[in-house]
Amino acid sequence: MAPMTTLKGDPFDRTLFESVTKRRFFFTESFEIYRVAPNFQGDNRGLYDYGPPGCALQANIVDLWRKHFVLEENMLELDCTVITPEPVLKTSGHVDKFADWMCKDAARGEYLRADHLVENVLASRLARGVNGPSKNSPKLDEATAAEYQNILAKIDNYDGPELGDLITKFDIRNPDGNGEVLPPMPFNLMFKSTVGPSAAAPVYLRPETAQGQFLNFRKLLDFNQGAMPFASASIGKSYRNEISPRSGLLRVREFLMAEIEHYVDPEKKEHERFDEVTQLRLPLLDKGTQLAGQTTPRNVSIEDAVKSGTIDNETLGYFLGRIMLFLLKIGVDPSKIRFRQHLDNEMAHYACDCWDAELLTSYGWIECVGCADRSAYDLTVHSKFTGTPLVVKEALRTGPVKVERWQASLDKKLVGPRFKRDAKAVQASVEALDQPLLEKLATELNTTGSVTVDTATPLADGSSSVELSRDLLTIQKVTRLETVREYTPNVIEPSFGIGRILYCLLEQVYWHRPQDVARAVLSLPLAVAPTKVLIVPISAQVQFTPITRKLSSRLRAFGIANNIDSSGASIGKRYARNDELGTPLGITVDFDTLANGSITLRERDTTSQVRGPEDEVLQAVKNLVDGTESWHQIAGRLAPFSAHGQNDD
Ligand SMILES: Nc1ncnc2c1ncn2[C@@H]1O[C@H](COP(=O)(O)OP(=O)(O)OP(=O)(O)O)[C@@H](O)[C@H]1O
Fold first, then answer.
1. Secondary structure E strands in 129-229
2. For residue 367, how far is its CA from the centre of ligand 1 (angstroms)?
3. CA 208–ligand 1 middle distance (angstroms)
4. What are the phi and psi torsion angles at 131 (to 5°)?
5. Taking the domains of the chain in order of start, what are their residue ranges?
6. Third-level CATH fold of 99-188
7. 200, 339, 468, 473: least CB-packed within 10 angstroms?
8. 262-295: per-residue pLDDT in tens?
């Protein structure tokens, strides 16, 4: 992979970049003063606090997200709890399956995520051209290098035992200390706790916002007056006990997610606004390309990708397009975005297609948005467990139709006395049987005289299934006249990690002035920049105070976030500080302002300045913020300005 370069094409220097984000307090390690305190036993890895510019940047990204998705498409926003009872996450599959594979370096007592270990070691061997940890290791031959590349291209496709085989085959060790690691073991990523003084009821901190949205499906559908398709959305914290949190904000244990659940008829996955994105070209790294060991995406129009079946359906294609447009809106570099399709093993078993929007950073390509078609899985499992139908009922436009359906019925007179307290659970389990299973059980009941039915909840004796004989259970095919069609919607889920997006964006907009690494700039677009305008009086004399205050209040009235810097530092220093904060515009008030009311306006990236009467300059600022005029246009209509003492040096 080519090394990361800045906006201006210079090599990206992470140390310099980190010194800027730290100095300007975008974010910081949580509990830092405790970590450096003597005898601190805690673990603060993967926990970060956002400082003032980080908070403002995050709020602006979230605000744009809400406008771009929720308001644009009338999505139904929810705010659900983080604390989630165990049965919910047991039913969704998280208790059993939300795990990563980890390896232990027994000598150091360190835990490593198995796929990351294999990936890092093989990538490092390829970069160094040697087949071992030190530079004295044997040279990497062509065939092995090709094999490594092939493995890396599909690294997400391996399960734990397969990763274990790779570790043994290539003698992969912990890069820290070169110690051997034990075979991969699954590790569940959820934080577990209990509620109430009895501590009897286990709960988890949610690992995603999605489940809360699914559980409210019935109320959402009612709120939407039964109309389909529609989407719900949620913005909130999620928690994952990552095995080895590294890479700053990219892999943390507490993070802000913004998720959409778009509910759609499984037989109608077209999208009514698809035509708005058909011509948009996306850099797609599809399954086939990855399995062929390649990493270069193809630029394909969404229309062609859906037509050829590369993207499974229109709705998924539509959301991939909307994700691309959102990323561009907040200032992500289009040449540093790609959409990578999940390989079959990587995808949850119930999903039918899944793409990750990945952004290029100094850590490589990072998944920032996942977009999956989760089929009807979640609604089906929650419905089965709770006995609450999470379905859509639609009147058949063609009038009543004859349908043949398998129907199971229990002899109520016998069930009560036979199963006592379990009778309700047995009844619910029979009602939850779907058509294919009923068909299978009907044959079995006929031939063997009894069938075993799984129960959604454990019975009084702890068992999770029940044997039902022919005297209790009847399964037969019935013909009915139906006037409504009932179906469980499929769910298309775009899922955004706001912290990852924020970090990748910061890396991508960072650069420094030519020949001066100390003068860093964050070219954040106006739409997300923490502060839009810096107001600087030429000197700290009190006569400027009423003018700067008035300018600030006029900008606030336009809804434009601004800041006055009347410190004694030189104008150049004050601008340089704000370049590092990503402030796009600067207004200078000087002695001419006192005389004739004119002020100057500076643009961060070019450092060019224009001058004009206060009203005109403020209107120009408003136009820039609203996006109705570009800097180029403004520079063409206001007078250019250059004066000693008000420039950057
Ligand atoms: N530990 C984390 N720290 C920060 N953001 C995260 C973390 N885990 C997931 N996310 C964000 O949430 C989004 C949706 O989560 P998803 O479950 O698809 O991630 P994932 O596939 O588990 O990520 P990864 O493979 O990197 O662990 C991701 O695209 C990412 O932006």
1. 185-188, 192-195, 201-205
2. 7
3. 9
4. -105, 65
5. 14-80+206-376+492-497, 99-188, 400-482, 531-641
6. Herpes Virus-1 (3.30.40)
7. 200
8. 999 999 999 999 999 999 999 999 999 988 888 8
Instruction: Report the percentage of the chain scoring pLDDT > 70.
Output: 99
Confidence of residue 390 (pLDDT cuts 50, 70, 90): very high
What number of residues does the chain have?
A: 649
Calculate mean pLDDT across residues 330-351.
Answer: 91
Q: Which residues have any ligand 1 atom within 6 Å of their CB? A: 240, 242, 251-252, 255, 257, 367-370, 495, 497, 499-500
Decide if pLDDT at 3 tops 80.
no
Can you state the angle between helices 498-509 and 14-23, rounded to 10 degrees?
A: 110
CA of 369 to the centre of ligand 1 (A): 8
Question: Is a pLDDT exceeding 60 seen at residue 649?
Answer: no
Q: What are the tens digits of pLDDT across the range 188-209?
A: 999 999 999 888 899 999 999 9
The architecture CATH gives domain 531-641: 3-Layer(aba) Sandwich (3.40)
* Residue 516 φ/ψ, nearest 5 degrees: -145, 90
Question: Which residue has tokens 């009543």?
Answer: 400
- Ligand 1 mutation pick, 157, 244, 367, max ligand atoms within 8 A of CB: 367
From ligand 1's centre to the CA of 52, what distance in Å? 25
Residue minimizing CA distance to atom 24 of ligand 1: 367
Atom of ligand 1 nearest to the CA of 242: 1
Cα separation, 325 vs 640, whole angstroms: 34
CA 499 to ligand 1 centroid distance, Å: 10
For ligand 1, atom 27: residue with the closest CA: 251
Among 474, 453, 456, which Cα is nearest to 406's? Answer: 474
**CA-closest residue to ligand 1 atom 6:** 497
The CATH number that domain 14-80+206-376+492-497 falls under is 3.30.930.10
What is the distance in angstroms between the CA of the first residue and the CA of the last residue of the chain?
38
Is the pTM here over 0.95, yes or no?
Answer: no
Ligand 1 pocket: which of 343, 500, 505 to mutate (most atoms <8 Å of CB)? 500
Using one digit for the tens of pLDDT, what is the confidence trace for 426-461?
888 888 888 888 999 999 999 999 999 988 778 888
* DSSP annotation string for 323-342: HHHHHHHTT--GGGEEEEEP
- Looking at ligand 1, which atom is closest to the CA of residue 356? 29
Q: What is the pLDDT of residues 232-262, one digit of tens each?
A: 999 999 999 999 898 889 999 999 999 999 9
Tokens 């095919």: give the residue: 477
Distance 65 CA to ligand 1 centre (A): 18
